[in-house]
């Protein structure tokens, strides 16, 4: 394959991936009546009417703050629980370790839709419905995170641990001072995935939340869809605003993510 053909294919793929984002921005600045009648990449009547409708229809900053707090706290707890469990499965020896790990991974095959009802019953029994705890507690552990980080810990030479043990270090010090710095790319990658999952969560907040006080961003945007009419420019304006934190986070984590991908090909 020639270099020019390869560049053309990559450019075409990049355009296909970026087009939905461009269309979202264009729709957000298109006048409400023109969104469905004359959709085009360069709107005839451009303006910020969609953003005005967004802030008038919703307590947007409160909703965005709810999503941000939920995503930050959930991501931090997931990184703590997943990294500690990954170290235990990769470095510690205890009876039934492999069986427990396989059983833990088997939970990945259970879809969230199946867990919603029993999870709601449990949250209601604990009197946590319509609280921040109802959104955070079910997200503090992840089998995928444990699997991803365990693989990163498992490939590290055990000689590092043995040398630290000779110097008098214990498991906690080895985990904090040796393991965590070495798996930083994997932590950044999983942290980005966890933040995206929490930021975009819709199904569980829809079930667990009743009041607008605890409403998250996806729930708030869904209220803009009416039975007979939908404010598409306002919805797209909210989508544009909701994309910004993800772009900022990816910009900070990009170096570690690239390094994680590069390390995946090394033995």
UniProtKB/TrEMBL annotation:
Keywords: Cell membrane, Membrane, Transmembrane, Transmembrane helix, Transport. The chain crosses the membrane at residues 63-89, 101-120, 132-149, 231-253. It comes from the Bacteria. The keyword Transferase does not apply. InterPro entries: MetI-like, MetI-like_sf. Pfam families: BPD_transp_1. It is found in: Cell membrane. Residues 64-253 form the ABC transmembrane type-1 domain. PROSITE patterns: ABC_TM1 (PS50928). It is a multi-pass membrane protein. Belongs to the binding-protein-dependent transport system permease family. This is Carbohydrate ABC transporter permease. It comes from Dactylosporangium vinaceum.
């Amino acid at each position: 394959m020639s270099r020019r053909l390869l560049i053309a294919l990559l450019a075409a793929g990049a355009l296909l991936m970026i087009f939905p984002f461009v269309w979202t921005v264009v729709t957000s600045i298109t006048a409400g009546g023109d969104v469905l009648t004359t959709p085009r990449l360069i709107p005839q009547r451009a303006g910020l009417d969609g953003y005005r409708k967004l802030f008038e229809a919703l307590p947007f900053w409160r909703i965005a703050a709810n999503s941000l707090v939920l995503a930050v706290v959930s991501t931090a707890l997931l990184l703590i629980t997943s990294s500690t469990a990954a170290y235990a499965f990769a470095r510690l020896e205890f009876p039934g370790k492999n069986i427990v790990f396989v059983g833990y991974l088997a939970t990945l095959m259970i879809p969230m839709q199946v867990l919603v009802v029993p999870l709601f019953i449990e949250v209601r029994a604990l009197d946590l419905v319509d609280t921040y705890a109802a959104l955070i507690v079910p997200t503090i552990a992840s089998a995928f995170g444990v699997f991803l980080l365990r693989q990163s810990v498992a490939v590290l030479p055990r000689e590092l641990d043995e040398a630290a043990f000779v110097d008098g270090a214990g498991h906690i010090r080895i985990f904090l001072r040796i393991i965590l710095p070495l798996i930083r790319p994997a932590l950044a990658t999983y942290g980005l995935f966890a933040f995206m999952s929490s930021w975009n969560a819709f199904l569980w907040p829809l079930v667990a939340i009743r009041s607008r006080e605890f409403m998250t961003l996806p729930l708030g945007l869904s209220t803009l869809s009416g039975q007979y009419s939908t404010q598409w420019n306002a919805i797209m304006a909210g989508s544009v605003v909701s994309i910004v934190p993800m772009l900022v986070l990816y910009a900070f984590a990009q170096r570690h993510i690239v390094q994680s991908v590069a390390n995946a090909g090394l033995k």
